[in-house]
Specification:
The chain is built from 2 helices and 8 strands. It is α+β, with helices and mostly antiparallel strands and 147 residues long. The chain is globular and about 50 Å long. The chain starts with 6 loop residues before the first helix and ends in a 12-residue tail after the last strand. InterPro entries: HotDog_dom_sf (IPR029069), PAAI_dom (IPR003736), Thioestr_dom (IPR006683).
Length: 147
């Protein structure tokens, strides 16, 4: 299956459905099986000690998997996260953006699974790893066409 949305179309759609946070995330690379996304780290993403907070890293991983689902399936605004396993491996550098590299492992009719490695920009050592599962609305339903 090929991409239904290119990088620009995906960014426009994300801005439309998530106006409150779309400026936090930038799609850097996109193909049929993977996506690279950046979290533009600001003070709001930091916790004491100068590190990026866990919720901010989860948000990046979650948005990353959601974005590749959108790029492959089209406008699926009501696709929802049903599971996440996240391992935090080392302290991220709060002075740098976070980079997420996501591989789409499965894209079925009702479920999608993605694996995400998160890095501090400039480092080749992952700071966290997440596997997320999404439930997709039935094809042809009003939920599948939302947005």
């Amino acid at each position: 299956m090929s991409l239904v949305m290119n990088q620009e179309q995906l960014a426009d759609y994300m801005e439309n459905i998530f106006p409150q946070v779309h400026k936090d995330f930038v799609v850097e690379e996109l193909n049929e099986t993977s996506i690279v996304m950046r979290l533009l780290v600001r003070d709001a993403h930091l916790r004491p000690g100068g590190t990026v907070s866990g919720p901010s890293m989860f948000g990046l991983a979650d948005v990353c998997v959601y974005a590749i689902i959108l790029a492959r399936k089209g406008r699926q605004a009501l696709a929802v996260t049903t599971g996440c396993s996240m391992d935090f491996m080392r302290k991220p550098d709060g002075g740098n953006d976070m980079i997420a590299r996501c591989t789409l492992l499965k894209l079925g009719r009702s479920l999608a699974v993605g694996d995400v490695l998160l890095y501090s920009e400039g480092s080749d050592k992952p700071v966290a790893r997440a596997t997320l599962t999404y439930s997709l609305p039935p094809e042809g339903s009003a939920a599948a066409e939302f947005g």
